[in-house]
């Protein structure tokens, strides 16, 4: 019975490097220039804000969303709308109307 020599990691890497080297130099293609810079987030005109909730508050909000088939985000926006109106400030719908 003959014992086959194990392949070393060094020989695999060396072999892969030799195979990956192109015969000709790659051609650089410039990306088209954008007329205006993209916002940092995924959505234009929207800023992400993190809220830290205690576990019982999070669970209750989650349960409420499940029971009423709404997103937790909807309740947070509704709450902010109430806070703004209580203080005599424009509500969420009014502020959304100003942005567009």
Structure, explained:
The protein is an all-alpha fold and 100 residues long. 49% of the residues lie in helices and 0% in strands. The radius of gyration is 28 Å and the shape is elongated. It starts with 8 loop residues before the first helix and ends with a helix. The mean pLDDT is 81.
What are the defining features of this structure?
mainly alpha, 4 helices
* Tally of helical segments: 4
The sequence of SSEs as H and E is HHHH
* Low-confidence blocks of residues: none
How far is it from the N-terminal to the C-terminal residue, by CA? 79 Å
Overall pLDDT level: 81
Gyration radius from CA atoms, angstroms: 28 Å
Q: Pairing-aware structural class of the strands and helices?
A: mainly alpha
What portion of residues belong to β-strands? under 5%
Tell me roughly what share of residues is in helical segments: 40-55%
DSSP summary, beta strand count = 0
Strand count, sense and barrel status of the largest sheet are: none
Q: Give the overall shape.
A: elongated
How is the topology of this model organized?
Layout lengths: L8 H12 L34 H14 L3 H15 L5 H8 L1
Give a quick precis of the structure:
The chain has helices at 9-20, 55-68, 72-86, 92-99. Helices cover 49% and strands 0% of the residues.
